[in-house]
Design a protein that fits this description.
Length: 395
Amino acid sequence: MIKLNARLGMTWEGEPFVARVTTNPNLPEPLRHSEALVTPCVEAAPNGFRVALYRGMAHTGNHRSSDAVSVLPLPAGLEHLTDGDIVRIVPQHGEIFVLYRKNSDSNSLLLTDQCNSNCLMCSQPPKPHDDSHLVAVWLEAIPLMSRSTRAIGITGGEPTLRGDGFLKVVRACKHFLPDASLHVLSNGRHFSYLSLCRALADVDHPDLMIGIPLYSDIAHIHDFVVQAEGAFDQTIHGILNLKRCGIRVEVRVVLHRQTVDRLPHLARFIARNLRCVDHVALMGLEIMGHVKMNMDALWIDPVEYQPELCEAVSELSRRRMNVSIYNHQLCVLPRELWPFARKSISDWKNEYLDVCDDCAVKQRCGGFFSSAKIRCSEHIAAIHDVDEGMVVQCV
């Protein structure tokens, strides 16, 4: 698991700031004001940079600060920082956060921890604190991101709770990252307001998709999973409104004990009533957040629901709908499902078990969330008997 935040070992007076990482101490001085220089030693930190982080021992006695530059030890675990990455430093708390990694396709912009749902299996449970400052953080960071960025996510909580701030972030992504696809994770409920869908469509982002969860074809089951009465109706209206405005939609179904029994029925519901959606993702469970508290009500070994999963995939694919399986290991899937399996887990939290070391399809397999050490399928095993001519389209 890649570390994305750390303590600096010291605090000092100053406002939080965002900076782009560079390892070039000879950067022209007019370009240094928004850069964080990562340097091998304190003495190699020239003036003009927003901050300098040295890769030496984290001794607070080596810290120096002036009007020109602060020199700080790079915390252990953040040695992966490289040119083009973006960090945020909070001096009064002595914290550093990695906001963006240039060489990753798993960058996401967290707009808020707040949410108008409270899903049983939420991996990042809602928090009531005021985090409205996050919009400003991302509006500061986006212009520093590489124009070669291929994909960006927007997530929460529920990002549409930020209202116009959400639209501002989408506009900034369009302007500064014109070649990046933008994938927004939303519960879809606010898109039941057609005005929001029209405002989003007016941004005219060239490669935008909204990922919206739907957990059952029966309203009260979906509402129970998301812990919000009326959510099913709002979500369906939201999906239809988005498609009415020409915005691409992905329907997401997290598979657990509360959703798998009716999975084939949900697939038929989608195929008959939501044929306009652009993608359907059937997703394995991440054991984080609320899942830990609701483990008995949610956990089911993926091997146990393979008949339902096979039927759902068959229903959707034969209706010529674009369907994928996320967050599953190939060894728990029947081989007829392998072409639908995707490597979908963000790279910073994607891991493999020791038993996977000599597996013939490891490089094609989606692997595990780092939380899999808490619980995973009892049927994980290395695969050796793969025909040379077998085509596996996992990506």
